Amino acid sequence: MERVSEPLLRVRGLTLRFGGVTALDSVDLDVDRGELLAVIGPNGAGKTSIFNCLNGVYRPQEGTITLDGQPLTGRAPAAVAALGVARTFQNLGLFTHLTLVENLMLGRHHLMRTGFLTGMLWWGRAKREEIAHRAAVEEVVELLELEPYRHTPAGLLPYGVAKRAELGRALAMEPRLLLLDEPVAGMNLEETEDMARYLVEVRRELKPAMILVEHDMRLVMDLADRVLALDFGVMVATGTPEHIQSDPDVIAAYLGGAA
Ligand SMILES: Nc1ncnc2c1ncn2[C@@H]1O[C@H](COP(=O)(O)OP(=O)(O)OP(=O)(O)O)[C@@H](O)[C@H]1O
């Protein structure tokens, strides 16, 4: 179906090869403002490769990626982050010796305008900026109910809380597009339900566009507006969770063992 307005993220013909392996084969996807697209597929399907292309870690051989009309292809990871693409990592991207709040403050680094020298010359401005950044971090702490862990070193956080802190670190960047890499991997049922609740809150309060890569099919089907199913780097199906759940190819390839 033809879209009327330009999506926030537009990916066309994304192709990534490692030697003889085609990790992504001409993948197209769109994400609208505020939309949650889930990407599913068995191990090795190319889900992580999509994230690595989107955030500038991998350089695809072919294809285009634009965010709000601006090309992302060929940009370095820091430049992509500065344009508003944040990512959570499966194995957590937190600095273990820093406190939770310090980790979240680091997430805002690219938004800080006052450098060291200007900070010395314009002490008042640097101070005001710091206060504003702390206030933004506190909003995230409150939204994700992380208050009790504010001063805990990230390495000492219980696993479920550390995953939530990882989400907080990405949110502190005020992303326009949030890439969630298996946010409930390794969690028990209760932790998974908690994370689902926080993700619903994040959508309601902050409304970032999101791409969710996740093996937990219940979470995917509960949260996603649309689902893209991949197999061996090829798009197998795309549609609403209801459509995907009843697609025979998807049932055969993905849901058979996981439902
Ligand atoms: N750095 C790399 N070098 C060589 N091959 C790679 C590299 N990264 C990914 N691949 C290959 O690309 C294909 C897609 O891998 P990718 O990690 O994107 O899959 P995935 O869907 O994220 O899998 P999983 O669910 O296990 O995380 C696989 O065949 C993988 O072996």
UniProtKB/TrEMBL annotation:
Example GO molecular function: ATP hydrolysis activity
Stored SMART domains: AAA (SM00382)
Domain of life of the native organism: Bacteria
Membrane spanning stretches: none
Ranges where the ABC transporter domain occurs: 9-257
UniProt GO cellular component terms: plasma membrane
InterPro entries named among the record's database cross-references: AAA+_ATPase, ABC_AA/LPS_Transport, ABC_transporter-like_ATP-bd, BCA_ABC_TP_C, P-loop_NTPase
Pfam families (alphabetical): ABC_tran (PF00005), BCA_ABC_TP_C (PF12399)
Keyword annotations from UniProtKB, A to Z: ATP-binding, Nucleotide-binding, Transport
Listed name of the protein: ABC transporter ATP-binding protein
Biological source species: Amycolatopsis suaedae
Lineage of source species: Bacteria, Bacillati, Actinomycetota, Actinomycetes, Pseudonocardiales
